[in-house]
Amino acid sequence: MKLSRRVSWFLLAFGVWSWVIWVTFAKNLWKDGSGLAFDDAGNPTAYFWVHLTLAITSFILGTAVGTIGYRGVRANKK
């Protein structure tokens, strides 16, 4: 299957965007001082684990989508 140039660039941009957003979110989650991510003893809460799982899943999916877009962009240059 050959992707159009527009779709390829969209997928690549989506993959990059996903990494930018979720890396920022993961950093903020790690530094959370509101009591949601860590309890008073400093232990991670269920909120932390659920959102860390979401971030990791998004990293994986963003990488896969971005890779497909990158390959499409490269294929369209030939």
Descriptive notes:
This protein has 78 residues and is mostly helical. Helix content is 73%, strand content 0%. It is rod-shaped and about 55 Å long. Helix 1 (5-30) packs antiparallel against helix 2.
Strand fraction equals under 5%
Helices and strands, in order, run as HH
Largest pleated sheet = none
Give the low-pLDDT segments: none
- Determine the mean pLDDT: 94
What is the CA-CA span between the terminal residues? 15 Å
Number of strand elements: 0
Total helical segments? 2
Task: Summarize it.
With 78 residues, this protein is mostly helical. Helices cover 73% and strands 0% of the residues.
Question: Which features characterize this protein?
Answer:
single chain, 78 residues, 0% strand, rod-shaped, 2 helices, mainly alpha
Compile the SSE list and pairings.
Layout: H1 5-30, H2 46-76
Helix pairs in contact: 1-2
